[in-house]
Amino acid sequence: MGVPTAIRPQRDCAGRARSTGSFVVVLGVLAAAFAVTSYVLPRSARGPAGEEPATAPVAPAAVRTVSHTVVYELLGAHGARNVTFAAAGSALTQHAEVATPWSTQFTRVGPAGRTEFYSIAARNPGPGALRCRIVVDGVVVAEKTETGSDRLFSCAV
Prior knowledge:
This protein is of the alpha+beta class and 157 residues long. It has one helix at residues 13-40; strands at 65-76, 80-86, 92-98, 102-111, 119-124, 130-136, 139-146, 151-156. The strands form two sheets. Strands 4-1-6-7 form a four-stranded antiparallel beta sheet, with no helix packed on it. Strands 3-2-5-8 form a four-stranded antiparallel beta sheet, with no helix packed on it. β2 (80-86) and β3 form a beta hairpin. The longest helix is centred in the first third of the chain and has 28 residues, at 13-40.
């Protein structure tokens, strides 16, 4: 009895071409990724480029400031309670009770052309009228009178 001999199959060249084709595709994908990455990365990440022209540092423009003299006044026969006003630097100041006539004066400094806010509020203990006034640089800019007893009111600009 004889042992059958195995016949070796011939190799197909198509298999070799297929592996070479896969290698070319992978190489193409890597080249495309490198090209996109090189294009997308910012210039600073790729290192220094040529010399850029030197520019002088820009100094901030000087801001012209102005100062305003502000006077808050309360006028009435029976004083005022819960007096609250915006003073220098826009800080709120409060007094539980003041005798009238009452006034306070301060200077507010700020950039020229900026709109300033001034405000005073008080409660009229009554009876009678309580008047508030705001005077800026000698000019009355707000004035109001409250005649109701125990009423809170305000002057503001």
